[in-house]
Amino acid sequence: MEPITELDARYSAEGATATEWARARDTLERAQTFWLATVRPDGSPHVTTLLAVWQDGTLYFCTGAGEQKARNLESNQHCTLTTGTNSLEEGLDVVVEGVAERVTDAGRLKRLADAYEVKYGSDWRFEVGDDAFLNQGGDRALVFAVSPAKAFGFRKGDFSQTRWRFRRG
Predict the structure, then answer these.
(1) Which of 24, 38, 136, 142 could pair covalently with 72 via S-S, beta carbons 3.0-4.6 A apart?
(2) CA–CA distance, 133 with 125 (Å, rounded to integer)
(3) Cα(88)–Cα(58) distance, integer angstroms
(4) What's the CA gap between 18 and 92, in Å, rounded?
(5) d(Cα 33, Cα 22) in Å, to the nearest integer?
(6) CA distance 133 to 141
(7) What confidence score (pLDDT) does residue 169 get?
(8) Are 134 and 142 contacting, i.e. CB atoms less than 8 angstroms apart?
């Protein structure tokens, strides 16, 4: 399903056009690192870098159950995932807003484990067990899915800001 695409002219160069969702999706598929923003139970923000996989219109990431981001998601599942470039003159930054939902289905986890290894190499090979990923040391990593509710694209060089809104259901 294609999102509704809107250019925000307030933050775009004169004559700029909206960035196509296909370009943003390609950025999400190819990105090596992402930044996850969650909210602590006291309301303060928490941001950390992590790896993620784009599959079937959804971003997936994993984390240890005791890590701050996992604890934050227990009380507030709303989050953002951001990726892009630190260049001012070229590239596209993409921000995805959504709700992080645990993935526990063994078949889905196996497909995601395979996708992690394809994207990041054998150092990121996971087994599946106990409703989670198991790393090579046997540690358990919870897996989360974030289906975009809304996303933003910030194109550099020929500056533009695009918003994509997703219809669910």
Answers:
(1) 38
(2) 9
(3) 27
(4) 12
(5) 19
(6) 5
(7) 57
(8) no
**Residues 6 or more apart from 91 whose CB is under 8 A from it?**
84, 85, 155, 156, 157
Report the C-alpha gap between 120 and 36 in whole angstroms: 18
Return the structure tokens found at 130. Answer: 């106990």
**Cross-strand partners of 115:** none
Tokens representing 3? Answer: 């999102």
CA distance 55 to 57: 6
pLDDT tens-place string over residues 10-65: 999 999 999 999 999 999 999 999 999 999 999 999 999 999 999 999 999 999 99
Residues in the chain: 169
